[in-house]
Amino acid sequence: MEPVALSLARPREVRADAARNRAHLLDVAREMVAELGACNVTMDGLAERAGLGKGTVFRHFRTRAGIFHALFDEEEKRFQHRVMTGPPPLGPGAPAVERLVAYGRARLEFLVQHAALARASLDTAQPIPSESPSLFHVQMLLAEACPVDARSGILALQLVAALEGPILLYLQAPDDTPDPTRLVHTLGASWQVLAERVTAAGAAPPARR
Amino acid sequence: MEPVALSLARPREVRADAARNRAHLLDVAREMVAELGACNVTMDGLAERAGLGKGTVFRHFRTRAGIFHALFDEEEKRFQHRVMTGPPPLGPGAPAVERLVAYGRARLEFLVQHAALARASLDTAQPIPSESPSLFHVQMLLAEACPVDARSGILALQLVAALEGPILLYLQAPDDTPDPTRLVHTLGASWQVLAERVTAAGAAPPARR
DNA sequence: TACAGAAACGGGGTGCAGTCCGCTTAACCC
DNA sequence: GGGTTAAGCGGACTGCACCCCGTTTCTGTA
Question: Is B186 in CB contact (< 8 Å) with chain A?
């Protein structure tokens, strides 16, 4: 007689109303972000416009940043899908370094496009978890390109920071970015230099130039 | 008759009481951070403990993050002074790449040591300005090590992000860092690889090894 | 020393993030 | 269908960042 084990075995399905409310909240949130900008979306406002209680909003998303994180995550999933299934060099099939370069360029474009959400989803109280898909993907490519250096995972961390940091931390928050296209281009070119040089020296050893 | 121009020319000195209060607030804030941790310091608490009005605190520091920024800035100044005047390879006198490596290691140690302040001073609403001393210093060293690549300033931005991002964004916020010394060491070693490889290929051209 | 103007100060007021807890309801079992 | 239970829901409540503006204090000038 182990009712605990039994109940653990099938942990009761997600309630339909909860799922519905969550989806609805995301829809309304998306709408409000488009309309007011992320920084003008409040939890009260969202709850009211969704016709739900404030407690419900917090139950689903924990914190204010949680909402933007959830919204960003949807985009992130689409992006990662493109990366995993698209044609090379972004998708599988090209040499690791080429993929790394292509990934960086694509990621920059993606980030600039969703910069507001990406920033709003940062929670200064909690760090970005190491399960970040971006980190995971870079780690995978590095493991292929220069296994020895990639071993500890630190290099991947640093490269992802180099890739995403400028947009997340260091560049203008208000979208007064003079020319996003130009920005992506410049950052992309620099990323290519960075990625190629870092991996070149650590590659399968004696591939003389 | 140009009283405006005249008054602009000498914009009236800082009031003595203001300077005194500011210094006092910083002292009390430092004390409270040490005692309660940055995340438990409130503006009201600070004002009360300092025996000043809340308005005064905000007048001096603008935002909550502003206080921690000011505190961090003091440490930052000390650190930059060490960097500018210390013995090589951290200080002047060594080749640029060696200085870059040494700077990274020193910076990591510094950041880990003041991680709580550094994080608390991040203001998600406003980006880190490009006058960041760290960015400035890396840019200077890069300009010496590989002038062509450094030209745009983007590479410096990316390297600083690679250096500081892991601590600012990606690693555990609560000081459950298993072993800070070990962390600094690992990040430092990885930084060295990064810095040396990136600069090696772009160095003053044909310096054959 | 007296005065005028500007800067600094104080603390009540506002809006929002996040918590709490009693009530409701969907899901499972019979 | 009826009962049980855990999850979900709502909205009043709390605490804090930040604003506002009438009052006070300093400083440069006469």
Answer: yes
